[in-house]
Structures are given as C-alpha cells and as structure tokens.
Amino acid sequence: MTIFSATGISASYGRTRILHDVDLPELHDDEVLGLLGPNASGKSTLMRCLTGEKTHHGRIVLDGSDRDEMDVSAWHRRVATMPQTPPNPSVLMPTELMWSTARALDLDFSDRELADRIEDIFNRLGLDEFALSPLHVLSGGKRQLVGLALALLRDPDVLLLDEPTSALDLHWRMVVLDLVRERLTERGGVVIAALHDLDLAARYCDRIVLLEAGQIVASGTPGEVLTPDNLARVYHVETSVSRDEQGQPVVQVIRPIRSGKQVAR
Ligand SMILES: Nc1ncnc2c1ncn2[C@@H]1O[C@H](COP(=O)(O)OP(=O)(O)OP(=O)(O)O)[C@@H](O)[C@H]1O
Ligand SMILES: [Mg+2]
C-alpha cells in the first residue's frame, strides 16, 4: 500500500520564488495525479522538489516516513522520475544505458531478473528493435521512450513523469499511458504526471492539479478542474467542454484569448 503526500512545498531559484506553498492531494495506491499548467508555471520545478533534486521547504511523506528522514538510496529505490529532457543523443545504446543505470542505483535484482525486466520493458515500449542502436540515431520520440524505460527499470512505488508523451505520436501516447495504468493495476503505487494534453489528462488522471505561477488554482477530478473558466484563467484560451460516454470532460480549444478574459459564448 503506497500513500504519498507533499504539502507546503515552496522553492526558489536564487531570489526568485517559483513555488508558493503548494499542497498536493494525498495520493493512494492506483491513483494518477495530473499536474497541469502553462509553460513556466513550475511543474518541472515541483517534480524536482518531489525527487529531492531541488532544495525546497515543505513536507514530502511516503507511507508515513518523512523524506528528510529516509535513507537516500531507499528513497531512490521507491521513487523514480522521468525528466522532461530525454537522454542525450550519445553513442550509448539503450541496453547499455539501462544496465549502467541499474548498476549505479545498485538495484536489488539478480542479473537474470534485470535482463528479463529490460527485455519486458523494451518490448512493452516497442524499443526491442532499437535496443542495440546508439541513442544518436534514435528519433526524439524513441529517446523519450528510453527515458521512460529508465524510470520503469527500478519498479518504483512513486513514478514521476514530466511530460512523458510530449514527443510521441498518437499511438504511442496512448500505449505509454495505458502501460502506466496497467502497471498500477498489476503492482500498485502512484503516478504524478506533468501534462500539456488536456484530453489525455482527462482520460488517464484520477485527479488534476492546475498550477499558475507556482500556485495551485484548482484541484479535483478532471470534471471539476477542466472547466472553461479555469482554462481561460490559466491558459488564456476559449474552450468548449463536453462530456464523453463515461462522463469525462472533452475539451475543444476554440481560440486564444488576447485580453486574458473568457469570451462569452
Ligand atoms: N535552473 C533554473 N534556474 C533559474 N530559473 C529556473 C531554472 N529552472 C527553471 N527556472 C524558472 O522557473 C520557472 C518555472 O519553470 P519550470 O521549468 O518549473 O516550468 P514548467 O511548468 O515545467 O514549464 P514547461 O511547461 O515549459 O516545461 C520558470 O520561470 C523558469 O524560467
Ligand atoms: Mg517543465
């Protein structure tokens, strides 16, 4: 059973405050939280605070243990992140990168288990045929999938995904998020994903937090958060929101709002 919470998170770069007392909803096994907000609203900074990469104020608690009191390597075995930037296009092959990452993290798997895990992850992400190709010959989307493979390698309880589908085509966007969902059903855990695609967020997230300038402006179910007023306020776009057969919101973006105000329809 995984329970993850992050409360009162504040962070700065130099003298510039980026995050202002952000409280995420407490997440329980099988839940996916979508982190939405415009460019520069602080999504990646928040992700970096949650992994411990960025210094911050506030409390991050996993299964009753405060992150600050946990052994760092134990934390990194349970919490993995896929950063917004994919692995560099180097001469390394995806297989080599997976093995060297596993060694560096001192993962608790035998060589046989690791080989099986790597094969399984590559198969699920359609990377099997690229496993022995240098990263610099892979397309941007395939390198993004290698970034996800690296995060999945350690089989974390908390999976943090920073724009995991931004470089992927329509098919792979859904395959990736279906895989993330299936994984939660199979083994539990929680996922926090920064996303720009509102339809994917509505379809795959149980809860959504909408950030603007480092502050939460709305938090709740996709239906509660993805409203024309919230979207006008935060993204400065006029939208029409309908419901699909499951009652989930479907957002149609109509036009940007130059004045910053929602246009009455
Ligand atoms: N290393 C850094 N040093 C200084 N300022 C930074 C640094 N990284 C990010 N920032 C600033 O922090 C703010 C939030 O950036 P962040 O990358 O968290 O936004 P984001 O919501 O992830 O945006 P995007 O959707 O474009 O990825 C921005 O104003 C950005 O310029
Ligand atoms: Mg970002």
TrEMBL record:
Protein name per UniProt: Cobalamin ABC transporter ATPase
Residue span(s) of domain ABC transporter: 4-238
Keywords: ATP-binding, Nucleotide-binding, Translocase, Transport
Any Pfam family the entry gives: ABC_tran
CDD domains reported for this sequence: ABC_Iron-Siderophores_B12_Hemin
PROSITE patterns for the chain: ABC_TRANSPORTER_2
Family annotation (InterPro entries): AAA+_ATPase (IPR003593), ABC_transporter-like_ATP-bd (IPR003439), P-loop_NTPase (IPR027417)
Gene Ontology molecular-function annotations: ATP binding; ATP hydrolysis activity
Role: Part of the ABC transporter complex HmuTUV involved in hemin import. Responsible for energy coupling to the transport system.
